[in-house]
Amino acid sequence: MTQTRRAEEYVGHQHPAYALARRPLEVVALERLTDRILHVVLADPAGKPLAGYEPGSHLVVDAGQGRRNAYSLTGDGLNPRSYEISVLRLPDGDGGSVWLHEKLTVGGLLDVEGPRSMFPPVHDQQHSLLVAGGIGVTPVLSHARALKRARRSATILYSYRPGHQAHLEDLLTLAGQEIRLVEATTADDTRAALDALLSEQPFGTHAYACGPPAMLEAYEEAARQAGWPAGRVHLERFVAPDLDPGDPFTVTVASTGQSLEIPSGVSLLDGLLQAGVRVNYLCKQGVCGECRIPVRTAKSLQHRDFVLTAAEREAAADLMACVSRGRDIEVGL
Ligand SMILES: Cc1cc2nc3c(=O)[nH]c(=O)nc-3n(C[C@H](O)[C@H](O)[C@H](O)COP(=O)(O)OP(=O)(O)OC[C@H]3O[C@@H](n4cnc5c(N)ncnc54)[C@H](O)[C@@H]3O)c2cc1C
Ligand code: FES
């Protein structure tokens, strides 16, 4: 929180509705949706307009002690008067989600960047299948609200543990003629609903899912079994599965000629940061795209992220430094 910083310090020369760079927004409301999920409403401190955003976009939020975390916006993105996010407090941790739960107060300022779009809808889709698991409901709600506003049709599957169903009321409000809501409260019911829904969608449907790794695996598997082409199966990950430590390798920094040995268990990102090479990063899990760096040459590359497309991997022009590895890599930094 930056309670003492004046909003005027951040005023740039652009119209405020286009401001995406780091700036303070005021916390105008806080609501506990469940015992572990806090809904945060942010607005411009001077009441100025906020930048619109594509459904499924996220904000990058300062989360204490230099941490910057991504949180999905739950609105439809059109002419927003406020930005709204919902933060799951991770148990037994001292991470950014705990900090946000404990430190945010109504009337305080919070530094944010964005909105950034990494999970947008396909605009010529005939119908949408939206799949949410747990806190993964946040970008799904954004998509659903935008579809409702545009009077487009959607089927939503919301899988949650009873007692932890953030935003269920919001989805129930959207449900009606064009929007069908299906609820599942166990892993077995979720898998059965995924199998049924993926096999009954009309031609031209695009599917979008966000949730825990096990649910996303089930979703991808069910889509494969139902014969969906990969280009119509979209997903966003908040968290990635654990990775093996990988083999050691050598990296050369093109601008300085510096050669670094990256040991097993150390990421290329951490190796570069420890050597004083500046690289942006956020999630350190290969899901946010922030640590993308150019590759000049490489004997081999082992992409382990969830950001690059198959075509981008094939082109071998970039890699995500937080998770990907390889052999004898020269990076264009
Ligand atoms: C594009 C994007 C959008 C996101 N949107 C949301 C959102 O709308 N709401 C929200 O609460 N979070 C969201 N996240 C996750 C969020 O950015 C943080 O990772 C999360 O709040 C944990 O941060 P932390 O600093 O508390 O814990 P960290 O110290 O960063 O992580 C601690 C451990 O918890 C694991 N972890 C991280 N997230 C989860 C999770 N959801 N469930 C279980 N384990 C987890 C990490 O793998 C790590 O091992 C999003 C992430 C991305 C990349
Ligand atoms: S820091 Fe998020 S993909 Fe690397």
**Which structural class should the secondary elements be placed in?**
alpha/beta
Average pLDDT number: 93
Report, as a whole number of angstroms, the end-to-end distance.
Answer: 32 Å
Low-confidence stretches: 1-13
Strand segment count? 16
Heteromolecules bound: flavin-adenine dinucleotide, FE2/S2 (inorganic) cluster
Helix percentage: 10-25%
CATH architecture descriptor of the largest domain: Beta Barrel
What is the CATH homologous superfamily assignment of the largest domain? Answer: Translation factors
For the report, how would you describe the main beta sheet? 6 strands, antiparallel
Radius of gyration: 21 Å
Assembly type = single chain
Strand content: 25-35%
Annotation field: number of helices: 7
Can you describe what's shown?
- The protein has 333 residues and is an alpha/beta fold.
- The protein folds into three domains: 110 residues, Elongation Factor Tu (Ef-tu), domain 3, CATH 2.40.30.10; 110 residues, Nucleotide-binding domain of ferredoxin-NADP reductase (FNR) module (Rossmann fold, 3-Layer(aba) Sandwich); 83 residues, Roll (Ubiquitin-like (UB roll)), CATH 3.10.20.
- 20% of the residues lie in helices and 31% in strands.
- The chain contains seven helices and 16 strands.
- The strands form three sheets. A six-stranded antiparallel β-sheet has the order 4-3-6-1-2-5.
- A hairpin with a 5-residue loop joins strand 3 and strand 4.
- Helix 4 packs parallel to helix 5.
- It is globular.
- The N terminus is likely disordered.
- Flavin-adenine dinucleotide binds next to strand 4, strand 5 and helix 1.
